[in-house]
Amino acid sequence: MQQNAKRQKIKTKKILIITTNDISYLGADTAGQQHLKYSEDALIIRVPDPVIFPPDFYVRTLEKGFGGIIVASAGDESPFLNSHARLAKNIDAAYKIMNEKGIDTKRLVLTAICSICAGSFIKAVNNMTKYLDSVHEQE
Predict the structure, then answer these.
(1) Which CA distances in Å does 118 have to 1, 17, 65, 78, 121?
(2) Which of 49, 94, 134, 135 is deepest in the core (most CB within 10 A)?
(3) Domain annotation covers residue 5
(4) 2 inside domain
């Protein structure tokens, strides 16, 4: 999906993690309860389902100061009809806007996290942290 020829330097390493109330947040919470280490720059928010956000929300969030966004979907476990397929379309539309604006698409990641998937949650955060470390503009 990455089409940008030049890597952008990013001024912040803040990561917005969007989780679902009933499923993916529980995976993040499990990681916390197990005292697993991940970036202190991560901010977790809980929503009924990430499909509620339009594509431009992700782009504006990156433009306003977040280094990266992880959308932790419930996948097929979501109680909302076809939400994962609709969310995937929203993310694809966001990637198109990001490419038009020259924003690296690696800054937005869609992943599925189950209620007991602490390891998957940590892996997603650590991967984003490594990426942001590699493109972070030193002050």
Answers:
(1) 27, 14, 27, 18, 5
(2) 94
(3) no
(4) no
